[in-house]
User: Which sequence fits this backbone?
């Protein structure tokens, strides 16, 4: 005969209303019955350790603790000593005579002895809550406001969710500089939300460290509305992360990388299909975001400040940045190898080195609407594309010079032209015109255009003969200013077509 799980659910946290409806008082003794009035009392109960009990006692918050009801009973009337009873139901009804424990829905770490007083070591209490939820097949832990000292490491389990009262008040405070705060191997389907993870300010530990040992990937991980700060290692390190979301996670003042997502290609799945939305990194010593081998992953509305490298895409496939930015970084974005990286609306501000660097034969890179804003005096380059790289650039706003040794196809290269594989095609008109017509006066005409260089090739044709036609040629050029066209006939008044080409 199966016993069902009761207590500690959201429905049991009853706030006492003004009209006198049923509620549980702090420390009240609660008994259970088969009827709303009179009836037979249930006394064959068990606590979560399997010990026999006949009643339960409400916590300091007026909540009913977890317990197992009588065999095959799925609902009971609870009596807390007031004028009426309330109906409560089991969290999940198991079929037949199965003794499998149901998944827990809500469980407070205070039920396991956590103090949150900033002094008591709560490691064992929080770990006990994680283990209890894991043993039941999964569940949700509530981490109330307070500073919970974590002198050890919390080993997380699949299917266990932790929700705090907010990243400013529900704090897990790591005190051992060599320990990670939360770690786990081969885990999946985990959510951490509304929490602050604070480190000791030095050492080697990370805030969150999830690794893969034998599973294909670390899947179904959600980090949301979190502050992670002051760890000696990475803020977030995830190995082979797949099908996961990091949403509004702020990492600051860590000794490693803010977000380090590593996916060496030693499995079929690898790290893939992950989103970082509205995340930020501030003052991390090694870098902001380092994606190593990730695939089909997106970053949207993310930011980084004061790190050597804002974003590093290392051997990635199909990774995109949309509306992201890097401020006060030596290099804003590095694409190191890989294929199909895109940056749309990416901005670097106050860079003191290179804003965007493409290297190690990165292929298929697309940069659209990338803008360099107010680079520092030490900055050297806006876009650097090393030999072997292939990229397409649309609407680049550059303050510093570009260094383009790779194949860079550019639309709007700064003078209104289009550059394909290093060659200018389809020149425009205007002050930087690369083609047009001019009328000879007494066999000569000067065309003003800033597109002319010392090495430009100028093509000339007679469009409309006039006067005594001679042979036209380039008589003089002033780089960046003008080109003078002359005819061998001083009475030539022909209309001349001209076009400026740059050698590859």
Assistant:
């Amino acid at each position: 005969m199966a016993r069902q799980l009761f207590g500690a659910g959201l429905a049991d946290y009853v706030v006492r209303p003004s009209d006198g409806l049923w509620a549980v008082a702090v420390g009240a003794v609660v008994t259970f019955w088969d009827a709303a009035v009179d009836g037979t009392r249930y006394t064959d109960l068990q606590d979560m350790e399997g010990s026999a009990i006949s009643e339960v006692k409400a916590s300091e918050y007026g909540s009913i603790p977890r317990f197992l009801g009588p065999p095959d009973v799925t609902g009971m009337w609870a009596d807390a000593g007031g004028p009426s009873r309330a109906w409560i139901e089991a969290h999940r009804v198991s079929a037949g005579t199965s003794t499998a424990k149901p998944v827990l829905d809500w469980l407070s770490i205070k039920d396991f002895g956590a103090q949150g007083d900033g002094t008591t070591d709560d490691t064992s209490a929080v770990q006990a809550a994680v283990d209890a939820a894991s043993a039941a097949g999964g569940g949700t832990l509530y981490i109330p406001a307070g500073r919970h000292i974590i002198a050890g490491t919390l080993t997380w389990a699949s299917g266990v969710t932790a929700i705090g009262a907010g990243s400013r008040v529900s704090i897990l405070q790591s005190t051992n500089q060599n320990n990670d705060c939360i770690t786990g191997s081969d885990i999946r389907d985990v959510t951490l939300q509304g929490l602050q993870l604070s480190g000791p300010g030095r050492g080697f530990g990370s805030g969150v460290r999830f690794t893969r040992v034998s599973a294909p990937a670390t899947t179904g991980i959600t980090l949301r509305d979190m502050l992670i700060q002051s760890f000696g290692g990475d803020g977030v390190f995830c190995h082979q992360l797949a099908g996961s979301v990091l949403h509004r996670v702020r990492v600051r003042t860590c000794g490693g990388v803010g977000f380090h997502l590593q996916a060496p290609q030693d499995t079929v799945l690898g790290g893939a299909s992950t989103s970082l939305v509205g995340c930020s990194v501030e003052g991390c010593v090694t870098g902001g975001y380092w994606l190593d081998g990730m695939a089909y992953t997106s970053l949207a509305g993310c930011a980084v400040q004061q790190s050597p490298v804002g974003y590093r895409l290392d051997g990635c496939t199909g990774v995109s940045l949309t509306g992201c930015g890097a401020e006060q970084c030596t290099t804003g974005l590095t694409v190191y190898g890989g294929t199909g990286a895109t940056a749309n609306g990416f901005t670097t501000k106050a860079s003191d080195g290179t804003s965007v660097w493409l290297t190690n034969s990165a292929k298929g890179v697309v940069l659209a609407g990338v803008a360099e804003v107010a680079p520092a005096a030490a900055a050297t380059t806006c876009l650097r594309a090393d030999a072997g790289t292939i990229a397409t650039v649309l609407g680049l706003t550059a303050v510093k010079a570009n260094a383009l040794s790779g194949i860079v196809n550019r639309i709007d290269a700064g003078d209104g032209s289009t550059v394909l594989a290093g060659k200018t095609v389809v020149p425009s008109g205007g002050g930087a015109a690369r083609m047009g017509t001019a009328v000879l006066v007494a066999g000569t005409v000067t065309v003003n255009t800033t597109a002319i260089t010392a090495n430009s090739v100028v093509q000339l044709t007679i469009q409309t003969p006039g006067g005594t036609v001679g042979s036209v040629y380039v008589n003089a050029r002033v780089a960046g200013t003008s080109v003078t066209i002359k005819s061998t006939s001083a009475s030539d008044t022909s209309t001349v077509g001209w076009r400026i080409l740059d050698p590859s």
